[in-house]
Amino acid sequence: MSGFSQERLMQVLLAPQISEKATFVADKNEQVVFKVASTATKPEVKAAVELLFKVQVKSVQIANVKGKVKRFGRSMGRRKDWKKAFVCLQPGQEINFAAGE
Asked: What ranges do the domains of the chain cover?
C-alpha cells in the first residue's frame, strides 16, 4: 500500500455498479465497475480495490457522470454528479459479488 491511510481507502469505494453495461464490460475485458467518491483518484481506487478484495489491479479508468435534471412538481431539481471507476484486473483475477464473502 502506497502512503494512503486505511480510513481513506475504506471511504473511496461506495458500491459496485451492477447493470447490463457493467456486466458486458466485466465479461469482455476482465473489468469491474464501481461507484466511487467524487474526490477519489486513480491510485486511491487501485489501492482500495487491492486492499478490500485481495486482487491485483492492472489499470483504472475513471469517468465523471453528470447528474440528471429532474422535476419535483413544478420546480426543477438536479441529481448529484458522481464518479464511476472501471477497474481492470490482472489476468486470472476476479471479484465475485454474487457469492457471500
From this structure: 6-89
For the entire predicted model, the pTM comes to: 0.82
Fold of 6-89: Alpha-Beta Plaits (3.30.70)
| Residues 56 and 50 sit within 8 Å (Cβ to Cβ) | yes
For the chain, counts of helices (H) and of strands (E): 3, 6
Return d(Cα 31, Cα 89) in angstroms, integer.
6
The Cα 8–Cα 81 span in angstroms is 20
- SS3 call for 79: coil
Cβ 101 vs Cβ 95: under 8 Å: no
Secondary structure letter of residue 95 according to DSSP: -
- Residue pLDDT, tens place only, 10-65: 899 999 998 898 889 888 888 899 999 999 999 999 999 999 999 999 999 999 99
